[in-house]
Amino acid sequence: MAQLTVRSLLEEEDTGLELEVLSGFDGLDKNIASHRIQKPGLALAGHYNYLHPNRLQILGSTELSYLEKLSPEVAESNVEQLCALGFSCFVITKGQMAPPVLLEKTARYSIPLLRTEMKSSAFISLISRFLEERLLPSTSVHGVLVDVFGVGVLLVGQSGIGKSECALDLVLRGHRLVADDVVRVRTKLPAVLFGEGSDLLHYHMEVRGLGIINIKHLFGVAAIRERKKIDLAIELLEWQEGASYDRLGLDEQFYELLDIRIPLLKIPVCPGRNISTLIEVAARNQLLKEMGYNSAREFQDRLEKRMAEMAQLHSHLIIGDSLE
């Protein structure tokens, strides 16, 4: 599973977390390995079961006010046993002053003690979303991601098959480019894949014969998207004479990424086939499937019903109306 250091958390820009370090500077390279957070209120009372050292520990008004009511000896003992568990870091909310015992023990055990001006509820909501995005599994895919009629279409296939040219044609038709060449794919709970472009290649596209072009500058902000949920994968294949291709659409295939399966279509490419049009139709058809309508299955059901009716009629003609 992905990990994030406390130092990286502090260096992230535009997070809105408003974090500052109070003590435990030697532990800034500790890893945060879970997107879930915890409030160690019971631990301050001496109950240390079910604590998770790899989670962020939030100290709000309730925890700090309880700590102040304890005798100095009990407070010191409880905080020391808490810090001995080796947490990633503690975060004090609402800009409250840190108790001296907490400053001392976190420095001794090299556990970063952070502070934010945000209220506990707002900070927990924001940090949970942030960590969920950073810590869930991710990977990179060689392909193109395009938003077609609101459907995230991931184009894959061998190099030079025409993925970028097809995406460019889709942009000219009014659709939106998310990423070209390298698609960064992240999971999002419960089982959804999101794709985005890499920092270096964002909004850029490589077209053989033209070179590198900037889609945002050429077509405007309406032609690009930062990220998009991946709903459908389409593999572009070279047309091969004699090869068998799906002609009915009944054989469901899937493209697997990060243990999540998404519908897959394989479209052969050859002169005379308008691939962009086929992708638009595939996106519309995917929308219908998500609404519960499958045209291929409906056609199969009608065909089987008609065949059954014809078989029954044929039986009556041969044997007679007395057949039961």
Overall description:
The chain has ten helices and 17 strands. With 324 residues, the protein is of the alpha/beta class. It has an eight-stranded mixed beta sheet. Helix 4 runs parallel beside helix 5. The model has no long low-confidence stretch (mean pLDDT 87).
Computed Rg: 29 Å
Distance between the termini: 64 Å
Quote the average pLDDT.
87
- Write down the domain tally: 3
List the uncertain runs. Answer: none
CATH topology annotation of the largest domain: Rossmann fold
Strand order of the largest sheet: 14-11-10-8-9-15-17-16
Total number of strands: 17
The percent range for helix content is 25-40%
- Strand % is 25-35%
What are the SSEs and their pairings?
Blueprint: E1 4-5, H1 6-11, E2 19-23, E3 31-32, E4 37-38, H2 41-44, E5 56-59, H3 61-69, H4 72-83, E6 90-92, H5 100-108, E7 113-116, H6 120-135, E8 138-148, E9 151-157, H7 163-172, E10 176-188, E11 192-197, E12 204-207, E13 211-214, H8 215-219, E14 227-229, E15 232-238, E16 253-257, E17 260-269, H9 275-290, H10 295-319
Parallel strand pairs: 4-5, 5-6, 6-7, 9-15, 15-17
Antiparallel strand pairs: 1-3, 2-7, 8-9, 8-10, 10-11, 11-14, 12-13, 16-17
Could you provide a short overview of the structure?
It is built from ten helices and 17 strands.
Which features characterize this protein?
324 residues; alpha/beta; Udp-n-acetylmuramoylalanyl-d-glutamate--2,6- Diaminopimelate Ligase, Chain: A, domain 1; Rossmann fold; 3 domains; eight-stranded mixed beta sheet; five-stranded mixed beta sheet; 10 helices; 35% helix; 28% strand; elongated; protein serine/threonine/tyrosine kinase activity; serine/threonine-protein kinase
